[in-house]
Amino acid sequence: MKVRILVRLKPGVLDPQGRAVHHSLEGLGFDGVSDVRIGRMIELDVDEATTDEAIDQMCRQLLANMVIEDYSVEKLNTAEPA
Amino acid sequence: MKVRILVRLKPGVLDPQGRAVHHSLEGLGFDGVSDVRIGRMIELDVDEATTDEAIDQMCRQLLANMVIEDYSVEKLNTAEPA
User: Residue A43 and residue B38: Cβ atoms within 8 Å?
Assistant: First the structure.
């Protein structure tokens, strides 16, 4: 089973990397971008038997910094090209 | 309009960060994980008028390293909590 975990900074937390990318996009002439936020994507290949609770625990213990980050979990159809 | 860009290493490109996370997950006692790949998520807030071509150009010129990375673009419903 493929699981995609998206980790993003909580709203309100300053994102200097996103700001730098925003600035660079403007420098390259791309107008119309009003905000850029950068996060991480973690794709796990796990046993079918893996519970949602186990995936939550992985996020809380290792994959996300719960102080400043939120995460969301998406289960991908294994037939989908990942 | 919110646009989510997912940047991941091309298949076959070594992912040392993913390997380290995989090792750590095993160290924490999470069995049943067979692979971990780590990528970036970039969330853009762009004008409704922004074309798909412009977003593609942003990816190719700045957001992804096309030599070793692939990207995919997902348009998010603005009503969806991002």
Answer: yes
Query: φ and ψ at A78, to 5 degrees?
Result: -65, -15
Query: With the CA atoms of B71, B50, A9 and B20 taken in that order, what torsion angle do they form, in degrees rounded to the nearest 10?
Result: 10
Nearest residue in A to B56, CA atom? A30
* Token pair 């990528």: residue: B39
**Local confidence pLDDT in tens for the 82 residues of chain B:** 999 999 999 999 999 999 999 999 999 999 999 999 999 999 999 999 999 999 999 999 999 999 999 999 999 876 545 4
Residues of A in contact with B56 (CB under 8 A): none
Question: Do residues A50 and A5 touch, judged by C-beta distance below 8 A?
Answer: no
Question: For the complex shown, is ipTM > 0.85?
Answer: yes
Residue of chain B nearest A57, judged by CA positions: B30
Contact A58, B30 (CB under 8 A): yes
Domains and CATH numbers, chain B: 2-76 (3.30.1280.10)
User: Would an 8 Å CB–CB cutoff place B1 in contact with chain A?
Assistant: no
Dist CA B1 CA B75 (whole Å): 8
| Rounded Cα distance, B42 and B4, in Å | 6
